[in-house]
Amino acid sequence: MSLILNDLAIGYRNKLVMAGIGGTINSGNAVALIGQNGAGKSTLLRTLAGEQSPVSGTFVWDAPVKRHRSIAWLSQSPSLRPDAPLTVRALAAMGLWARIGLFGKPCRHDQDKIDQALDMVGLSDLENQQVSTLSGGQLQRALFARLTVQDCGLILLDEPFSAVDTASQAKLLEVIQHWVGEGRTVIAAIHDLDCARHFPLWWELSKFGAILRRSDDKPLSSLTQPLRAVSGVAQST
């Protein structure tokens, strides 16, 4: 599975934000999307998620059919009604909708998948609690459980750690590493560079363009053997 970008230009409201984005990111990578406010991080993620059209150029996510909907997207402000009677387990189960539909009945395997996802994010004991009562960190972990159940090959996250406590941040990073170990690709917009250092790759947006590099500042061409979450990456210019 690969994310292939060919001379992609992005923008919004008739404003060009960035052009000439190109390169390939293969499966099993964790990429921190960094840059100053207004650099285009959220715009790029929304474009890749299909929420808006590119100004020009193309991108392709080449994934097997079994990866339902193939691309998952978590925005900074998920559309959840605060007064909706929704439990933590029901929120995680929403990850099944792409496969079984809104009114589909989860099978035993699906229920087990939900159990595993809630355990992974440390919310098994809160599965029957109303989402409206969760802290910011707990809510984000519940949303990560939904992404786990959704089982997409490419996961796009917009500032996933911006409103979470230290313990939740550590748990979310563990989940991302688990996704990468399964062969999924994660691209996360992050403003905190200390947090971004947990990601092997940085995709840096600036007025000079979009550059893909290792977070330890070593050039990708210096790699003599594949590293987990780094193999199969082409330079982006």
Q: Can you characterise this structure?
A:
With 237 residues, the protein is α/β, with parallel strands linked by helices. It has a single domain, classed as Rossmann fold. The chain is built from seven helices and nine strands, in the order E-E-E-H-E-E-H-H-H-H-E-H-E-H-E-E. Strand 6 (154-158), helix 6 and strand 7 form a beta-alpha-beta unit. The radius of gyration is 18 Å and the shape is globular. Mean pLDDT is 83; it is low at 219-237.
Number of DSSP helical runs: 7
**Low-pLDDT sequence parts:** 219-237
Compute the average pLDDT: 83
CATH architecture title = 3-Layer(aba) Sandwich
The CATH superfamily is known as: P-loop containing nucleotide triphosphate hydrolases
Task: Summarize this structure as a short list of keywords or feature phrases.
single chain; alpha/beta; 6-stranded mixed sheet; 3-stranded antiparallel sheet; disordered C terminus
